[in-house]
Structures are given as C-alpha cells and as structure tokens.
Design brief:
Layout: E1 6-11, E2 14-19, H1 20-25, E3 42-48, H2 55-63, E4 70-77, H3 83-93, E5 97-102, H4 108-118, E6 123-126, E7 132-133, H5 137-148, E8 152-154, E9 157-161, H6 166-175, E10 181-184, H7 187-193, E11 205-208, H8 209-218, H9 228-239, E12 242-245, E13 252-256, H10 267-274, H11 279-289, H12 293-315, H13 323-333, H14 335-344, H15 353-389, H16 392-397, H17 401-408, H18 416-424, H19 426-430
Parallel strand pairs: 3-4, 3-6, 4-5, 8-12, 9-13
Antiparallel strand pairs: 1-2, 1-5, 6-11, 7-13, 8-11, 10-12
Helix pairs in contact: 8-9, 10-13, 11-12, 12-13, 13-14, 13-15, 14-15
Length: 440
C-alpha cells in the first residue's frame, strides 16, 4: 500500500487532501464534499499525465455522446503542464466530470484504482487521454453488454497514426481485429494470455463495475507507468465469469504513435519499462493466495515470456546501448532468458558487433557468476555436513569460521563473509556482474 501518498481531490470546485490509504480503503471520503446525485449508468475513467494537447478532445468526445447517463472520472498523475487546469475547468462547468490530482506521480495503475473505487456507474469504460470515443460509442457499448448479459464485452476500434505509416496501422488493425467469440470462467485468462484470442487492452471493452471493483480491491498496489493495461486486466479477467466480443461499428479511436510503447526507448525509459518485471511475483502470490496457481501457471509463463521477449526487442533498438542498460535487462529478466531470446531472434544478424560483444560478455559474466554461486553453495553445504559430524566441542568452535581457523590450523572451508552473503542475501551475489566474487 502506498501509505500517506498525498493527493488532491477536486469535486465541483472543492479541494481537500487525504492519504492514498484512507481513500482507497474508504472511497466514500472522496465524495464527502459533494452532494450525492442519482447513480449514473456508466463511468468512464481517464488517467492523465501531461496530456494538455489532447485532453480537451478526449473529454469533449465523451460529453458529446448521445448517451447522457454517464460520469467521467479523471485522475491527474502529477502533470507538469496545464492538464490540471483543464480538468478544473471541466469540473467547474460540467457536473458529470470529476477529477482527482496526485501531488506526486504514482503511476497509471494507482490512478485507475482510485477512480474505480470512486466510480458510481453500473458499467465501466476506460479511455486514454490521447484517444477519443466515436459518436454513438457509449450507447453501443452499454447495449452490447446488456444484451449479451456478460461481465465484459469487446467492441470494434479504429486507428489513426501521427505519421502516415500504413504498415504500422495495418499491424495494429490485424492485432486488434474483433472476432465473434465468447469465453467463460477460468478460460478467460487462458484465452487472453496463452491463446491470444482476446487482447488485454482496457480501452476496447465495457465492464460490469462490480467485477472491476472486486479486482482492484484484491490487486496489490504498485507504482507502474508502462504495461499498466496488462496488470489491471489480469485481475479483472481473473474475476470475470463471462466474456463476449462482437463486431460492432467502431466505438473508439486509438491514436497510434503517441505512447512510449510505440517509440524507441532511451536508457531511462528502458529502466521504467523493465519495472514491469516486478508485477510477476505479485501476480504469482495472488494466484497462490487464491488457490489458483496450479490452474494458471501456464498463464504466468506466457506473460513472462511475452514481456521478456518485448524487452529484448526494445533492448536491441536503443541507440546508445551501455553496459548499465544491459545489466538492467539481465537483473530484471535473468541472463538465461535474455540469451535465449537473443539467440532465437538471430542476434548476430544485427550489424553492430561491438554492441553484440557487450551483450554477450555481460551474459557470459552473469553465467559465470551463477556457476560461482552454485559452487559456493555446494561448498557451504559440505562444510555444514562436516560440522555436524564433528564432536560438540569442535562443532561449537566451527560456528565461528575465523576462530576455527586459529584452533584447527587450516583455512576455514567457507569464509564468514561469503557464508553470510549466501545465507542471508543471495540476491546481492546473484546480480553482481562486474565485481568478481571472493575465492573460497
């Protein structure tokens, strides 16, 4: 829980401060300053971070919908431009628009979580601030989920590129092509992440609010700026019992080329992208806690494979590749995974030999360190076995390796430094690529 992460809640001109913990545990506090109105049918959630150029277009595309029984919940994730001022204008002039502003950046996952806990609609839709809803979208989406009586319904989208790149647009159209299909129960997660029969993106679907609220209540908090749709979708799809995709008229317009996922990352962006590796143990723990790990282990494996493959592809496109960047990739995903994907994708086809040499050297160093760690652990096990066979007096002496050396007249089987490293903090040894480990 991101305790005491202070944010501002703007409601019809009112301003109050509270903590993330208090609001996430009691969402009613965010509405304490506003007169409660009739429950809207639909809540549309928009996370915002420095979206000044497109934010008005996005909000106006929703306010102009023929379907009026809706609310818009925007969460400003500590924007440094005038996004907060734009939101304040809509809050002051349009009662259906509500806005929350984080004082420091907490990431899209927490922004959506807060909005979902605060949403009053029976159904939920998500929109990115650089995209827009097409005319009739809300009416079509609500009718779709009601007629199919499902937890999640997927509709058709279209794409618009910043640059006229027909190949890129065609690729996206092919990936997000809607097929008439349905899925139920535990098959929904499998169909998304293993079979790829449905995509994990949030913005091309409408959801029953009850499922979304249950998902974010169970979802571990994490500060994440990329792959946020994947993380939240994992929990929503876990709790969903029925999924339906239908070929409709286009309801949503995705502006291709505006996000970091479609651009070549630099070193800092790559580090932020690799932060998604921290979601894997959180999802695994969630499945184990809910006695669902065995039935979904293939889902986790598929997610790990997809993410690590994507990281390798991005790694090879960074213009100024450094040892630090490669080390970040290996620390996040492991040397074996990086090496396997580089071999699989034909890394030697790339022209920059110095870059390949750097990658290869670091992976070799990683593997050498792993072998050293394994040997140290083996030596420690042998030493402990010898200790158990000795007399109580000698065994007691050997609990202090330095003291044992002086008493017995020969080197201790494992130095106290290495023994402490292995037994108390193996991760500190595991990812030490440049420094050489002390010899035993």
């Amino acid at each position: 829980m991101f305790c005491m992460a202070i944010f501002q809640v703007r409601r019809s001109g009112f301003l109050c401060k509270s903590s993330w913990e208090s609001v996430s545990s009691d969402p009613s506090k965010t509405r304490s300053l506003q007169k409660v109105k009739a429950m809207p049918k639909l809540s549309i959630i928009i996370p915002v971070h420095n979206e000044e150029p497109s934010l008005r277009r996005c909000i106006d595309s929703i306010l102009s919908q023929s379907f009026k029984d809706l609310e818009i919940i925007c969460v400003d994730d500590a924007s440094s431009d005038s996004s907060a001022d734009i939101l304040q204008y809509y809050v002051d002039h349009e009662p259906r628009v509500h806005a929350t502003s984080f004082e420091r950046r907490l990431g899209t996952v927490l922004a959506r979580k807060l909005a979902l806990l605060d949403a009053r609609g029976e159904y939920i839709m998500f929109a990115d601030a650089d995209d827009m809803l097409l005319p009739g979208a809300c009416e079509t989406a609500v009718r779709l989920i009601q007629e199919n009586k499902c937890d999640i319904a997927q509709f058709l989208v279209d794409f618009e590129a910043e640059k006229k790149d027909s190949d890129a647009i065609e690729k996206f159209v092919r990936i997000f092509r809607v097929r008439e299909m349905e899925s139920h129960g535990t098959n929904i997660l499998y169909d998304c992440f293993v079979n790829h029969r449905l995509m994990h993106n949030l913005w091309n679907k409408i959801y029953r609010a009850e499922i979304c609220k249950k998902a974010v209540s169970a979802m571990p908090d994490i500060q994440l700026h990329h792959y946020t749709d994947m993380y939240l979708s994992f929990f929503i799809l876990f709790f969903a019992e029925s999924y339906r995709s239908v070929i409709t008229k286009p309801c949503y317009r995705y502006h291709f080329g505006g996000g970091v996922s479609t651009k070549t990352p630099d070193g800092k962006q790559f580090r932020d992208l690799c932060a998604v590796s921290r979601t894997l143990p959180l999802m695994e723990k969630f499945l184990r806690d809910n006695n669902a790990y065995d039935t979904n282990v293939s889902v986790l494996d598929a997610i790990r494979s997809t993410l690590s493959r994507d990281m390798v592809n991005k790694l090879l496109t960074i213009p100024n590749l450094t040892r630090e960047i490669i080390s970040i990739a290996i620390e996040s995903w492991g040397g074996d995974i990086i090496f396997d994907f580089l071999s699989e994708t034909g890394m030697f086809k790339y022209p920059c030999e110095s870059r390949l040499s750097m990658v290869s050297d670091l992976i070799d160093q990683y593997k050498a360190d792993q072998r050293t760690i394994a040997k140290l652990q083996s030596d420690l096990a042998v030493a402990q076995a010898k200790m158990r066979k000795m007399s109580p007096r000698s065994s007691q002496v050997l609990r202090s390796p330095a003291r044992a050396t002086a008493r017995l007249g020969h080197p201790s089987p494992v130095s106290s430094t290495i023994k402490q490293e292995i037994t108390s903090s193996p991760q500190r040894v595991q990812f030490r690529f440049v420094q050489k480990l002390p010899k035993v």
